[in-house]
Amino acid sequence: MCVTLLKNIRTNCKAIDKILGGGISPESLGLIYGEAETGKTTLAMQCAVNCARQGYKILYVDCDGTFSAKRLSQIAFEDFNKLAELIVLMKPSDFGEQVVVVDQLDKYITNNFGLIIFDTMTSLYRAKIAETPAKTFELNRELNRLMASVAQISRMHKIAVLVTSQVRTVFNEAYVGIEPVATRVLKFWADAILFLKLTENPQIIKASVEKIPKQVKMAEPLACLLKITEKGIHEYSS
């Protein structure tokens, strides 16, 4: 497979790719957050497949145990065997192992890597807080350090980083809503933010682009509907 200059990595959702200037750009950090069953992992896999189709390797850090070779084969289809060889899978079992992965990223990343995925960035962090709530401040500071580190690696190595996140319910006097776990940390470091929300139809997801990379000119946030199918997640028109 001939490797060319890394281009923006498409999500396969036309409206989202357009608003992002052609997809997730190299040297940027993208955040996808939403409730369970909103297609976060599927969208991350589609980005991995599209990066591999450019001839680049992907480091896929599965912190949530949701990576499925079967799902990858459905998305990659006839290219599965060829593209799967370009996806390096790591599965940290706790937050400490996740920290080690991030701290050693420079050892894993070579010139032919185009994308790093953390799915999800906050699941092991959240589990650690549940175990040791007295260390919440310390753990939050460590998560911030990890996000700063992956953002720096993205810029230094000119590759894209994509992180997914679980959500938590937010209550205040005006409304009840949801936001990413460790929302201030994740949103601070993210160059682009995509929020996926359930609808009454379990196969239809509402996607909202909440933050657009600075280099994308004359773009405005948008919302669109996506449909989850056996072959992946794509734009939906009623």
Question: In a few lines, what is going on in this structure?
Answer:
With 238 residues, the chain is of the alpha/beta class. The protein has one domain: Rossmann fold (3-Layer(aba) Sandwich). 35% of the residues lie in helices and 27% in strands.
Describe the structure in your own words.
The structure is a single chain. The protein is α/β, with parallel strands linked by helices and 238 residues long. The protein has a single domain (14-235), classed as Rossmann fold (3-Layer(aba) Sandwich). Helix content is 35%, strand content 27%. The protein is built from nine helices and eleven strands. It has helices spanning 14-19, 40-52, 69-76, 80-84, 95-103, 105-108, 123-131, 136-157, 183-189, and strands at 29-34, 57-62, 87-90, 113-119, 160-165, 167-171, 176-180, 192-198, 204-211, 223-229, 232-235. It has a nine-stranded mixed sheet, with helices on both faces. The protein has a two-stranded antiparallel sheet with strand order 6-7. Strand 10 (223-229) and strand 11 (232-235) form a beta hairpin. Helix 2 (40-52) crosses helix 3 (69-76). The radius of gyration is 17 Å and the shape is globular. It starts with 13 loop residues before the first helix and ends with a strand. 43% of the residues are buried. The mean pLDDT is 89.
